[in-house]
Amino acid sequence: EDMGKFRVPTLRNIAVTAPYMHDGSIATLGEVIDHYANGGRKITSGPHVGDGSTNPWKDSQIAPFQITPEEKADLIAFFESLTDENFLSDRRFASPFDAPR
After folding, report:
1. Cβ neighbours for 50, distance < 8 A, ≥ 6 positions apart
2. How many CB atoms are closer than 10 A to CB 33?
């Protein structure tokens, strides 16, 4: 029953959390938008060759849609606006393994 299911992460700081997707297989926000606009990815080489839009485990709500270059740029700008610079630079949340500065 759980085949293909995963928890969706927050959009907070999404612009600085690449790579994307549940498996880290997409490098940029633009590629993520293209993935969803196409209703899935077409992989042309490697061990995962195939058309993701025809995957039998894909949620039926993931369907192709049209997006203009301007809309895509606006969407990326929106995602970038969700970056919380104060949170990212707050030493309380820094890795305990980093050397002190």
Report:
1. 42, 43
2. 19
